[in-house]
Specification:
Elements (H helix, E strand, L loop, with lengths): L2 E2 L9 H4 L12 H12 L15 E2 H4 L62 E9 L6 H15 L4 E7 L6 H7 L1 H7 L2 E6 L9 H10 L3 H5 L4 E10 L6 H13 L4 E9 L4 E3 L33 H8 L4 E2 L7 E5 L1 H4 L18 H11 L5 E9 L3 H11 L2 H4 L5 H4 L9 E4 L7 E4 L7
Parallel strand pairs: 3-4, 3-6, 4-5, 7-11
Antiparallel strand pairs: 1-2, 6-10, 7-8, 7-10, 9-11, 12-13
Protein name: GT alpha-1,3-mannosyltransferase CMT1
Pfam families: CAP59_mtransfer (PF11735)
InterPro entries: Mannosyltransferase_CMT1
């Protein structure tokens, strides 16, 4: 078996990629910025910066994802392709509003990317990495380091990295801004913007939706040549290994899925708890574990208590279909984004459930005919380096989890949407609502 080790990924010292002098940032001195840049490009366990040691990339497993000869740029279609006909799906001419209220104050503050002289504009983007990051500088060596390693493996010219940074007080923005020369030297199209939108103030879901839309602006506006089969890799601030990212991309391809998600966890005690329970919904329309009206998470260990088939696949670490997921990291087709799909808040005037923007995103994916959504339980993520180590020790690395898997057993018999989906505006206020409520009115 051939491998592409993390410790031998043709280590390219940052200083070899970029001769630009690092200047002091708004928060961090140049010396600290340089230390983070070196750690991102050469992840070493001996570094002063805490990190998560990851397995080597299995070239044999993931080689089908690598970009070959660059594809010529195709003209944009005059109109999006029609969605599959169904009694519950709209026609291709249907138009959905992006927000239930005007988002005029929620637009990105910075301009979209300038053209880059050393990047071939005729190479189509197959992999579009998108992130919203704030106050997560300790994660950058692992998170951005993994992304850089994956990009090097897939082929930099076919990748774009779009990051929106949220006015971080810890220097996250200083490091992300300083990445530009080295990423462009690799051949990556790097789009970096800052935002002053704070989701804790005002309409939280509307602002979170706006923040998720911001890094996708190059796709919305058609400023990058996107391949027909392009994928968006959208990551939260998680301690992700390169193989975590590659496995989500691979499963999207082999399952012929429209969207794949990881499983994300948090340590509120000694044992990890599934984190994204407010967002994720199974094919029975229910949450991944039961939360009673008093908000107690005492049953968090009993995942898929009322979905035996899903529970069986989860416990055997096989992909399973879901109505909605996000779970810290997701890979989805760029096509619906190019066709007009946006993150949004709920249509309150139509009686639509108040819920998180990823649930609504998945709901709109189903509505547009992109309902092949899968969770990949071999990919397990946490939100800190320390707990990430604990989680990998407990749940296993991807390479361990899939060692004896075969593609046939991973296959999913895709089903239509559930009739109803659990709505949880609050833990106390829970009810089932028709899955396409507000979209048919």
């Amino acid at each position: 078996m051939s491998w592409f080790p993390s410790s031998q990924r043709r280590p390219i010292p940052y200083k070899q990629l970029s001769k630009e002098v690092i200047h002091n940032g708004a928060i961090l001195p140049a010396e600290n910025i340089s230390e983070y840049l070196e750690a991102i490009y050469n992840v070493k366990p001996t570094s002063r910066l805490a990190n998560l040691e990851c397995p080597a990339i299995n070239v044999t497993r993931y080689k089908s994802l690598k970009s070959g000869k660059p594809s010529p740029k195709r003209p944009a279609p005059s109109s999006p392709p029609p969605v599959p006909s169904s009694s519950t799906y709209p026609s291709s001419s249907s138009s959905l509003p992006l927000f239930s209220s005007p988002p005029s104050s929620l637009t990105p503050p910075a301009a979209l990317p300038r053209s880059l002289s050393h990047i071939n504009p005729d190479v189509e983007i197959r992999y579009f990495f998108a992130l919203d990051l704030r106050n997560c500088i300790k994660l950058l060596p692992r998170l951005i380091g993994s992304i850089v390693e994956v990009i090097q493996f897939l082929g930099p010219q076919s990748c774009a990295l779009s990051i929106v940074e949220g006015d971080s007080p810890d220097g996250t923005g200083d490091v992300l801004a300083a990445l530009r020369p080295s990423l462009e030297a690799l051949g990556v199209r790097y789009i970096y913007n800052s935002s002053t939108v704070h989701s804790a103030e005002g309409n939280r879901i509307a602002k979170l939706a706006a923040l998720r839309n911001m890094p996708l602006e190059p796709i919305f506006q058609g400023t990058l040549p996107m391949a027909d089969d392009a994928s968006v890799i959208f990551l939260n601030d998680v301690a992700a290994c390169p193989e975590d990212i590659l496995e989500l991309i691979l499963q999207k391809k082999t399952l012929n899925a429209d969207m794949t998600c990881a499983m994300d966890w948090t340590y509120s005690g000694e044992d990890p708890t599934f984190y994204d329970v407010w967002i994720a919904r199974g094919m029975n329309g229910d949450s991944f574990f039961h939360i009673p009206s008093n908000g107690n998470w005492g049953e968090a260990h009993n995942l898929f208590w009322n979905a035996p088939d899903t529970k069986s696949r989860f416990e055997s670490l096989r992909p399973f279909q879901a109505f909605a997921c996000w779970n810290g990291a997701t890979v989805f087709s760029a096509q619906p984004i190019a066709e007009g799909l946006r993150f949004r808040t709920n249509y309150d005037k139509k009686g639509e459930c108040f819920q998180g923007e990823p649930v609504l995103f998945c709901k709109d994916m189903w509505w547009r005919g992109y309902g092949k959504i899968a969770v990949v339980p071999s990919v397990n993520l946490e939100y800190s380096i320390t707990n990430g180590r604990k989680l990998k020790k407990l749940k296993g690395f991807v390479s361990d989890n899939v060692a004896n898997h075969d593609e046939r057993s991973d296959r999913i018999e895709w089903a239509g949407p559930p009739d109803t989906v659990r709505c949880m505006p609050t833990w106390k206020d829970q009810f089932m609502q028709r899955w396409n409520k507000s979209l048919t009115e």
